[in-house]
Amino acid sequence: MAYNPDNRRARKEQSLGDVIDKLLKAYRLDDKMKEFDLNDAWPELMGTAVAHRTKSIEIKNKKLLLKIDSSVMREELHAGKQVIIERVNQFMKKEVITDVWFS
Q1: In 42-67, which positions are buried (b, 16+ CB within 10 angstroms) versus exposed (e)?
Q2: How many domains does the chain divide into?
């Protein structure tokens, strides 16, 4: 059988999105990209009042770490932790977080 480079390429062809996803995972940057997406969507997901009081958002080990500058808001959000988890995971289209921690 003769060598045909087109056949070889066809088998290894991948979409640009798949290649970028693999690179992000290989360099462990996928969580950081998720944080950027979440930061951008935070006002839409949680409302402007919560977004205004949120000083930082991080994802570490499937935990969403939120710095909230209002103790009252922090307590209200703590009571609605499950809603936050559901909204974030729905936005991400997969389970990205399983818990929320506040500071």
Answers
A1: beebbeeebeebbeebebeeeebbbe
A2: 1
Helix (H) or strand (E) holding 65: strand 63-68
**Angle, in degrees to the nearest 10, between helices 81-92 and 71-79:** 70
Instruction: Provide φ and ψ at 58, rounded to 5°.
Output: -135, 150
CATH classification of the domain holding 71: 3.30.70
User: pTM of the full predicted structure?
Assistant: 0.72
Q: 6-39: per-residue pLDDT in tens?
A: 555 556 788 888 888 788 778 777 767 778 889 9
Domain around 58: 29-102
In this structure, is residue 55 part of a structural domain?
Answer: yes
